[in-house]
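FORM 7B: Structural annotation worksheet

SECTION A. Query
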Amino acid sequence: MLQIPFTDTRIAPGTVVSWSLRAKHTPRSRGDDPAAVSKSASFNQDKHHSSSQATRSTSDCIASSITITFEIEGRLDIAALESALLLLVRRHEVLRCEFRRLAGDLTCTALSPESVSLEAEQVGHFHTPEGLHTHLDKEFKSIDTLSWPLILMGAVVRESRSTVYLCFDHLVCDGMSMPVVVNEIQTAYAAHTAGRLPELPPTASYLTFGDAQRRRWSSLRPDDDRLDYWKGFTARNGGFFPRFPFDIGVADDRLYPMANRSRRLLDADETKALAAGARAAGGSVFTGVLAAVATALRRLGGPSVYRGLLPVSERNAEVWEHSLGWFVNTMPIEFEVGEAGVGGLAATIAGASAAYTEMQRHVDVPFVRAWELLAPEAYRLHHWPYAVNFFSYIDFRRAPGGEQHPLWKPKLHVWAACGNGISHWFHRTAAGLHVNTLHVDTPEAQQINDAQLDELVAVLREIGGAQRNS
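SECTION B. Predicted structure
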């Protein structure tokens, strides 16, 4: 799976068919659905929803979406695809949810599986890739956090191969949900076309996860020992959020349009060499890339101690592996950056690995709750207070259905209208190591991003070359 801007995707023209989620009863009249389930939303969902509500009448354009596109070979069986899409919605409660704020608490109510259906519409035939792109781009940007449903579905139908798309609000999913979606739809579609009932792995509800999280952590107070890791980091950092170490031409109190860019950093063989070099230093590709990012920043004049935020998967139980939801916590990490040379790189990788191990001991504390308790002034904002040092890494080869990605050609598209910083999503595929970057659309941000990634490639090759030359 490749994570790239939608503007970098070329989808061949064809006939667009879309499906809209419908309910026997409107979500607001869910009292007519005795099987509807209501629970408290997760901390992530609550903060995202409240920010959307608060900025609806302001100039802060915090809209965002997560989209997946993938290919189905052969002449499309539209009825089979519709059945697969409906099964997806019926299996995952979070996709059937309506969110309402009652007495300050965000409640999510999932309509019963039997109460929802899909309504198909043949949108029309698009003769050029440009016309198709304009239509889909407008669709993907229309999804609304405060409206129901929070999912768009469709397909671009052609004679020998069709492109399926699904677009979600972040409220109901994360990046790791996207391979789950692709694997589930492809598996169910294949079964339906063969006249079989789909055999899919068991799944659990994100509503259960979010409600349990709220119950466990709502009573947390600032003097709780479980916040000591965050407090220590904040004291050494001089604040709750670690700043991106270079000027990117933005004011702290403003949001800016975002540039969305992607780049392949290493090919498959180079990434294997990186893996071997990182292992030799006691690390992994993940900690190798993290250490390389810290080293690249240092060589450009950045700090000798790397401090950043990174997303951590909360799918630590098998029951969540095939579930959809926002299973992401955000944690701080810090480690020293070694001196130049192979020995310094090895020490930095070892330091990053040790720091990650230590961070994992404290990963249960929800980021949003720590933010609320330890940085209440910043928590009142509807976005991070300034450009933050942010690092993310995913190996999509290990995701459900990852071995089929070269055939299915899935692509993940993350879009955000505005922001005030720079974020890197590093990811590994069968083709190598890639990065998708969202940064404020300023000359300073573009310049430092290009310089950082150029230096990063050099460092990554040093790590891989050290192993080859040993």
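SECTION C. Observations
DSSP finds 13 helices and 17 strands in the chain. The chain has two domains: 2-211, 219-468.

SECTION D. Sign-off
Analyst initials: ____
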